User: What shape does this take?
Amino acid sequence: MFKNTPAIIIVAFLAICPSALGQNSDGTYFKVCVIQDKSGSSANFGTPQIKEGDFYPLFDAQLKVGGEIAFGMLDDSSNWPLKRFYVSPVPPLPVEEHAFSNRAKVEARKKYNRDLIAWKTKREKRHQRFQLDRDLFLNEIADDLSRGVDATSSDVIGALVRCHRFLAEMDADLTGADYIPFILFISDVEQALSSMFRQQNPDRDYAMPAPGALPYAKNIYVVNGRLHKGSLAQAGFRVKAFEGIASAIRTIVSISTSEEVR
Assistant: This one.
């Protein structure tokens, strides 16, 4: 729209209509750890498999408010590094300084216009980075998404601990800020380890941690056809069950993009 418009007209337009560039986001930065069950037993509970398209509502929410997605597998040993996609918080819209004299008002308006142009540039660069990193993330998880249901065990504890570590990390640009943690298990969330796994990991602690030991393991959602809450609920974790992936993700997006911090 502004391609052939003189710079001085752009400045005047921005000063009058900052909404043309979009206002600050309504919502709160969020972090969500998504775990997909790959054990054979999950099929007995009607557990779906997440697809690339399921992530796009989360991507849209990331662009709107900032956020990070981590993705991992629930299988024989789930305590492996997660694959992650980070989007920085939305840069704050500049505010024009209040001035009393006419000269001060003119200078304040000039500074505001400069800040507004810099803000627009920052937003554009953020969007470009978002698109690049989103495509890299999708490429990184492509093999996981297409993998068959072939695991002989379900290491729920390992996945839960790994998600908690991710959610407990405080990013540099979040220091002192609020953010909302989520865990999405697409699974029957039943801890079931094969005898071979136990033999290969003799020093492993197989007791389910208490909720108090994992303070960031909250807003836990599980998806399976039976609305089964599994071993997490039995251990005292507050779990909300969904029948489908889309409904669980809609809930995460709705909370994250709401003006009210929950």
Confidence is low (pLDDT under 50) at residues 1-24. The beta strands are 30-37, 67-74, 83-87, 180-186, 220-223, 239-242. The chain is about 40% helix and 15% strand.
